[in-house]
Amino acid sequence: MRFLLFVILFPISIFSQTIPRLDHGAYTVDTFSFAVSPDSRYLAFNQEKHESNKETPDYLLWIFDLEKLELKLLGSDSSWFTRIRFIDSDRLAYLTKDEGIKVLDTNGKLVKNIKNGDLSDHCGNYFLTGNGAEVTFWSKDLQKQKILNGLGQFRSSDCSETDILLIFQSQAVHLNPVTWEPICKIQGKNGKLTRLTEGKILPNNRLLVMDERSGFAIYENCKEIKSVYANAPGFATNSSAIFLGMSGSNSLRGGTNLGPFSYSYGIRVYDPAGSFLREIPFLHPVREMQFFPGKEDKLILLPWGDHFYFLDLKSGEQLILEIRQTGHWLLKSQNGSYNTNQESEPFLYFTEQNSITSSSGKKESRNLFQTFLKGN
């Protein structure tokens, strides 16, 4: 006699009890560069993917549509690429290892390949590309407008209606945007400010220049008025303050007073004259940081790893965006604190192939990010 056994399988919701675990599988990833579009809709970023059975990593270029909450892979390569910059809300540029600078639209279509470029930046009405110590100004339709030179490799820039600031490795150049003539040139000496990375135009005719080894210095009418040592690769400014994202040792040099600070990690806040104001606890080493365009109280932090943190500096609200493998992302909110609290998660979205679901298993119609950005 033969017996037939029928087994009825009931689907079990992975959201019913616990937060879904987003496993990478047999690989790990590290997010190491990002940019946000001028309209705050797109977040583009690079990831380095390490597989256990491969000696060399792969590199991934992602774009996350924060309006639709959709994640899309724009490209992958066995050669590294980095330094993403948006030209406008529809186009972005990034640096490749062997093919110079590539410009794509937000759907991944190649718009232009600038093969002799080694770094790019967005500066006011211009798109800038560097080739060693030479920097080329491009119009928004990618036509060459001007070529200038400095000392050391071109690193970054900042622009306003009345000023242009170019940062080279060994020199900062302050320009008049009408005449293109230098207003002043700032050069490091005695081992200080010799490896420049970034600069910002501050209110009241002040300039801020950032060095990867010796912190930052503030200049007023081209004369130094303040210098602060800090191990701070993360750096951002708004109209009222300077924000440094710390990443390691809290040691001081030469008795410099950084103000009270209890963590080797965190965000230090200074006024435009360089005086210490306060600290924001953040228990992760910061790699990059910037403000959402036009939002002086909404800050993006990229620590080491695969998470983005969106901070509301007024309310203390925090969103965490976790990017894992293809089609997997997690967006959660932890109100009232900058510190990660694993036990309190008021809202949670988990997605597979961009299907938005809450931790309870119910479909979500409310865009958590848009609510955060509008401050509601």
Descriptive labels:
globular; 4-stranded antiparallel beta sheet; mainly beta; 376 residues; 7-stranded antiparallel beta sheet; 2% helix; disordered N terminus; single chain
Report on the structure:
Among the domains are: 89 residues, no CATH class; 122 residues, no CATH class. 35% of the residues are buried. The chain has a 7-stranded antiparallel sheet with strand order 25-26-27-28-29-30-31, covered by helices on one side. A 4-stranded antiparallel sheet has the order 1-2-3-4, with no helix packed on it. A 4-stranded antiparallel sheet has the order 5-6-7-8, with no helix packed on it. The N terminus is likely disordered. It contains 1 helix and 31 strands. The N and C termini lie far apart (69 Å). The protein is globular. By secondary structure, the protein is mostly beta strands.
Distance from N terminus to C terminus (CA atoms, Å) equals 69 Å
Indicate the overall shape. globular
Largest sheet: 7 strands, antiparallel
Tell me what portion of residues adopts beta-strand conformation: over 45%
Rounded mean pLDDT is 79
What Rg is obtained from the alpha carbons, in whole angstroms? 23 Å
**Count of helical regions:** 1
Helix content: under 10%
The structural class is mainly beta
According to DSSP, the number of beta strands is: 31
- Strand line-up across the major sheet: 25-26-27-28-29-30-31
Unreliable runs: 1-20, 250-263, 336-345
Furnish the topology, listing elements before pairings.
Blueprint: E1 27-36, E2 42-51, E3 58-65, E4 70-77, E5 81-88, E6 91-96, E7 101-105, E8 110-114, E9 119-123, E10 126-131, E11 134-138, E12 144-149, E13 154-159, E14 164-168, E15 171-175, E16 182-187, E17 196-202, E18 206-211, E19 215-220, E20 223-228, E21 234-237, E22 242-247, E23 265-270, E24 276-280, E25 286-291, E26 298-303, E27 307-312, E28 318-323, E29 328-334, E30 347-352, E31 355-358, H1 368-374
Antiparallel strand pairs: 1-2, 2-3, 3-4, 5-6, 6-7, 7-8, 9-10, 10-11, 11-12, 13-14, 14-15, 15-16, 17-18, 18-19, 19-20, 21-22, 22-23, 23-24, 25-26, 26-27, 27-28, 28-29, 29-30, 30-31
